[in-house]
Design a protein that fits this description.
Layout (H helix, E strand, L loop, with lengths): L3 H18 L31 H10 L43 H4 L5 E6 L7 H12 L5 E8 H7 L8 E6 L7 H14 L3 E4 L2 H13 L4 E6 L15 H6 L5 E4 L2 H11 L6 E3 L15 H8 L7 E5 L8 H14 L4 E5 L5 H11 L5 E5 L4 H7 L2 E4 L8 H8 L4 E4 L14 E4 L4 H13 L1 H18 L2 H18 L1
Parallel strand pairs: 1-2, 1-4, 2-3, 4-5, 5-6, 6-7, 8-9, 8-11, 9-10, 11-12, 12-13
């Protein structure tokens, strides 16, 4: 017979093993250095941006932060400001690889410790929303924010080396749907480990998963970023906004990327107006220099320097309205037989669009480039940008094209008119209207001087309104304000 004391100890040991099994494996630091230990089978996409405890405490002391433990020990101490207890010691300060990005939080809001901020994304593809999050990960001040990202594995692979050198905790989700119990459990464990002050989901599906889960795990603040109405939401069930009103109770603040998005949230979804703040999208305008790559880009594309090119940049999905632009293109080539249509991007609709091109007999004048990382070069190669989207939040492509001094022909949907001013920086047309698209394109191709004037005005306007630095600072201000109150 087993000794009673031994029999009592065995279950406790098993409980410890189970608890430890929930913790993610140690992985390399964001800077690329090897971890202190790397278990067999660790996930190369999961990443910890942390220091060993003794180095973290040294950083805290250097910053003037009290590192003393409670007399009852670290596992029993409780923080008056944080009902969830103290931060894990290893969570302290991420290495910044020699960079210094901004002032401390304490100098702005009286907060001593950095704000622990977790982004949640559910889309497996890399588009405008994901570019916004990537820019924030790169630009938010390391001295103020400790960053974490939960995202589908496919998206993290699409980001690739863009996250190199960025001090961020990364949790890849096993699949792409965020509908299974496994994926929700992964996010729950990630929240428990990071213990964020703020969870920031982007897009409705992310909010559905992350907002209630964050509150259940006692995260003080949820900030939703709303990028515009969802085109897939139609019909009596999907088109109902009752779930949105219920979810809004879990959300402390909403960042809307345009005035149109804010209006839709308040007027249609029923969000309280005082919860919503507008922070327009921005881009790194220093990288967008007109004329620098025009000749070489056209040479790479095999297009003559004087051939008129209309370009469209974006995911090949129904939302972007490529099929209406293709329907409009035969009317353009009748007046400009040598014109070329450049489709930059990839997506699930590519085969259908290629079949449409063949059916219309316009294959010689249409170029599919696939995904391109050098979007600025592609924009430099074109003469006019077309944006035939059926819905948009605030289109980054229109901002980038305007910064490259290119006139834009876009559909008058959602936040697009806040970027494209009709008759001033380009033309606005109704959505799903091929004749209107072809008419606006022909007007600009037939009058290069006017097209150039519109492009120059668009560049000046973009430099004044849509700089990425403004967006990052305004977003950081929202995080600071809600963190101070929590």
């Amino acid at each position: 017979m087993r000794h009673p004391a031994r029999a009592g100890r065995a279950p406790a040991a098993r409980r410890v093993v189970r608890r430890r099994s929930l913790l993610p494996d140690a992985l390399p630091h964001a800077s690329g250095r090897a971890p202190l230990s790397e278990p067999h089978g660790s996930d190369p996409l999961r990443r910890h941006a942390r220091l060993p405890p003794e180095r973290a405490d040294g950083r805290r002391r250097a910053a003037g932060v009290d590192t003393r433990r409670s007399r009852r020990g670290p596992h029993h101490s409780r923080s008056r400001r944080d009902p969830r207890g103290p931060r894990p010691h290893s969570e302290a300060d991420a290495e910044v690889d020699g960079r210094s990005r901004g002032a401390s939080v304490g100098s702005r809001g009286g907060r001593v410790n950095p704000i622990r901020l977790m982004f949640v994304l559910t889309s497996p593809t890399r588009g405008g929303v994901e570019e916004v999050v990537l820019a924030l990960l790169k630009r938010l001040p390391c001295s103020e924010f400790r960053l974490a990202l939960a995202a589908p594995r496919a998206l993290l692979e699409a980001f690739g080396r863009n996250l190199d050198g960025v001090p961020v905790d990364i949790e890849p989700v096993a699949a792409e749907s965020w509908r299974s119990r496994t994926e929700v459990s992964q996010l729950a464990r990630f929240i428990d480990r990071v213990r964020p002050d703020i969870v920031n989901p982007h897009l409705f599906r992310s909010v559905v998963v992350a907002a209630p889960l964050a509150r259940w795990h006692r995260v003080p603040t949820v900030v939703e970023t709303y990028h515009g109405r969802e085109g897939w939401r139609h019909g009596p069930i999907r088109g109902s906004f009752v779930p949105d009103r219920l979810l809004s109770r879990f959300v402390t603040r909403v960042i809307a990327v345009s005035e149109a998005a804010r209006d839709f949230l308040v007027r249609v979804k029923g969000y309280p107006a005082d919860k919503v703040v507008v922070v327009p999208n921005g881009r790194d305008l220093s990288a967008l220099v007109p004329g620098r790559d025009r000749e070489s880009a056209r040479k790479d594309l095999g297009v003559d320097p004087h051939t008129p090119i209309v370009g469209v940049v974006g995911r090949l999905e129904d939302q972007k309205g490529h099929r209406y632009l293709l329907d409009a293109w035969p009317a353009v080539t009748r007046d400009f037989p040598d014109a070329r249509l450049l489709l930059v991007g990839d997506g699930s609709r590519r085969e259908a669009l290629e079949a449409q091109v063949k059916a219309l007999g316009i294959a010689p004048s249409v170029i599919f480039t696939g995904f391109r990382a050098d979007v600025a070069r592609m924009l430099d190669a074109i003469d006019v940008l077309a944006l035939p989207s059926l819905y948009e939040g605030m289109p980054l492509t229109a901002i980038e094209a305007a910064a490259m001094a290119r006139p834009v022909v876009a559909t008058a949907v959602d936040g697009t008119p806040e970027v494209v001013e009709h008759g001033v920086t380009g033309f606005l047309v109704p959505p799903a209207n091929p004749p209107a698209l072809s008419g606006a394109l022909l007007t600009l191709l037939a009058d290069p001087d006017r097209a150039r004037r519109l492009g120059e005005t668009g560049r000046q306007r973009t430099l004044e309104r849509f700089d990425l630095g403004r967006q990052v600072e305004a977003t950081a201000a929202v995080y600071r304000s809600v963190a101070t109150k929590s």
